[in-house]
């Protein structure tokens, strides 16, 4: 497991480059507990997001749905999915196992800290110059198999347009230094433990953090 060497980078607002990046706080729009109206990321993560935005094909923009999360919001998301799986008749152990595929277990601990709680995880998609979402073959936070990033790489699953759009997003984000969580086409990491484990980095440099303002 990669070590953590916290670099104490600040969180910064994502909505400061509207020419290429649109920020829409998804969970705030849904009215979820612990959500905030602005999207924030670690400064280094935001800088790499700018690199990704600059490499977009002509006429495309990034839409950012989520970045830093509070512990309260992470708990709300996890518990909601867990309860839904329990209602389907799954035992606790299996419900927890399936819930963790799409929502990290809430944790502030350095060894197990949830990616979004570090400010080094970002959920996003592609839009055209008018702000219309490009077809990605599934909705944000969908917990079905087609949410897996490479699901449409299988020709039997069809949807060539979604496959190419996902490849575009993957290419520009990986080119900027991010890694993708394979179960979610919209989720990318930089600097946190998930990123360190996927890249083989000796250490992660983003642990649990709080925004520079009172949000509760």
Brief digest:
With 216 residues, this protein is an alpha/beta fold.
How would you sum up this structure, described in words?
The protein is α/β, with parallel strands linked by helices and about 220 residues long. Helix content is about 30%, strand content about 15%. It is built from 6 helices and 9 strands. Strands 3-5-6-8-7 form a 5-stranded mixed beta sheet, sandwiched between helices. The mean pLDDT is about 95.
Number of domain modules: 1
Task: State the major sheet.
Answer: 5 strands, mixed
End-to-end C-alpha gap: 33 Å
Counting DSSP H or I runs of 4 or more residues, the number of helices is: 6
The percentage helix is 25-40%
CATH topology: Muramoyl-pentapeptide Carboxypeptidase, domain 2
Overall strand count: 9
Specify the CATH class. Answer: Alpha Beta
Can you lay out the helices and strands and say which pair or pack?
Layout: E1 3-4, E2 11-13, E3 21-23, H1 26-29, E4 40-42, H2 43-54, E5 60-66, H3 71-87, H4 92-102, E6 121-128, H5 160-175, E7 179-180, E8 187-189, H6 193-199, E9 203-204
Parallel strand pairs: 1-9, 3-5
Antiparallel strand pairs: 2-4, 5-6, 6-8, 7-8
Helix pairs in contact: 2-5, 3-4
